[in-house]
Write the structure tokens for this entry.
Amino acid sequence: MCGIVGYIGKKTNIQKVLIESLKKLEYRGYDSAGIAYVNNNKINIIKEKGKIEKLEKKIDCGVMGKIGIAHTRWATHGKANENNAHPHRTGMVTIVHNGIIENYLEIKRYLEKKGYHFKTETDSEIACALLDYIKATTKMSNLEVIKEFTNNVTGSYALGIIFDDDLDTLYATRKDSPLLIGYSENVKMIVSDVSALNSGIKNYYLLENGDIVKLTEKRVSIYDNDLHPVSRKKLNVKVDGNEVDKNGFEHFMLKEIHEESVVLESLLRKYFSNSKTFLKKMPKLSKYSRIHIVGCGSAMHAGLVGKHLFEEYANVETDVEVASEYRYKKVFYDAKTLVILVSQSGETADTIACLRKAKEDGIDTLVIVNVPTSTMAREADFVLNIEAGTEVAVATTKAYLLQVAMLILINLKMMVEREMISIDELDKYLQLFGEVPKKISEVIDLDKEYFEIAKNIYHEDNIFYIGRGIDYAISMEGSLKLKEISYIHSESYKGGELKHGTISLIEKNTKVIVVMTDCDLKSKTISNIKEIKARGADIILITTKQLDDDYDFVSKKIVLPKTNSLFTPILSIVPLQLIAYYVAKLCGCDIDKPRNLAKSVTVE
Ligand code: M6R
């Protein structure tokens, strides 16, 4: 999604500095980019549609400067083109903006009556003009102008601002859109993601909602929305060079799949290797008789796995809902309900809204998150960090896998609290879980087989996934993985539901990937396979060693190593991730940055 960079500091090759930081935000997804910087006391703006390399070709990279702002835009209001790209400039004000100004039309009409004309289709240009209007019509200081602006807009924003009458100062503010301030002795930066900071910056402040910031080369001044000076917690930048490097892999996605066994192993070893550390790390859950799991995309799919486990094993009624629905619907919960928010980034706007809704209603919240400094991690009552490390590929793999792992651990905690298993049995489960990372590596080692499957399906227009029970939850995620990176249409269905309509789409050679790991549902799934086989479907089966047999009706079969059924979803997703990867590769897609998608969806 959109990314913000701002720099103020000692004189430097300003264009290069801005572009380098923008490149670090590329993985978040964008469709145009631009920079603005001060040279000879004048603001210069350069923008381009498409990749940052195209923008780079437009600049000479020889300009020295002390201050600049830059942006990667993921189009919301108005097409992805150079005109709509940021930075925007009106009168005395130049800005970059993340978020959505919800009352922009109302403001636009007002400003048009005051003589403003607009060149773009964006809400951001309106924000820029409003700042200029307040500045031009009042005697307010620049900080007061920003405060007044925040009092008049609704929606979400992170803003980097340069005022023409103060070209040695960078201003910023945020509400419901992430922004942080990096600082070293002679350089200060604003960025929407810590990864975009210059390598020389080792410390940063996370801004709170409503903060207004004034940055000079030497000084960081942070104010609350009443313009009272405030101090914010200092944090250290912890970006492992290894994480932002492909380490010899062709794509980040492939590298991140290959990291799955390592990150799971490290999470289990650190906190969950025995009942003592496990019980210390896990929150007390005994008071909850009902759980709501909320997330978007893959995070919601992880929630579907959680629902299955919580209900089947721990006997706890669980509902799962996509955050964009949950936030607006009538929700039935009470003091005995726990709302679990699942999110890799911890910044997904819809999921944050659900977290706040639950909190406002006095309901306890727990987040399963990968970014410990994220908004969700800061606001929830309980936080479980999955510690997957930076995930660069837009399609989530290792973070999804660890979200599922965390839900399995929560399930074990509830089973202990409900006295469904003893501490000794818990230790046994944890020991078995400790063997899973090695099994993930075994599944990844079947690489050639995934490539063969991919070769057989990459030219298709439609691919179906089916499964029952927990296997349906996994096949939902497999289908999403495939469509988001290969652009091949795919759907996932509950095996028993096919004959109520969808089976009409099955014809000779229709590719169907079947996930079958649930012993109790084996015969039912086989009946579903037979039904579609009879209509000509070409079956690819993902199953386990326990369920394997001489299935002559499948054209290709992947057999997962033996494990306790509680841990099977951790293994069964891996082949689906790798099949999607190889299909996308054969299709020649931009695997790590699929079209139209953003890593972190920070707008509604
Ligand atoms: O950062 P989050 O986990 O909250 O993101 C949720 C979804 O946007 C994300 O899982 C999305 O579906 C991925 N592109 C899937 O690969």
Q: What stands out?
A: The domain at 252-434 is CATH 3.40.50.10490 (Rossmann fold). The longest strand covers residues 3-13. Residues 296-299, 343-345, 348, 351, 394-396, 484, 597, 600-601 surround 5-amino-5-deoxy-1-O-phosphono-D-mannitol (CB under 6 Å).
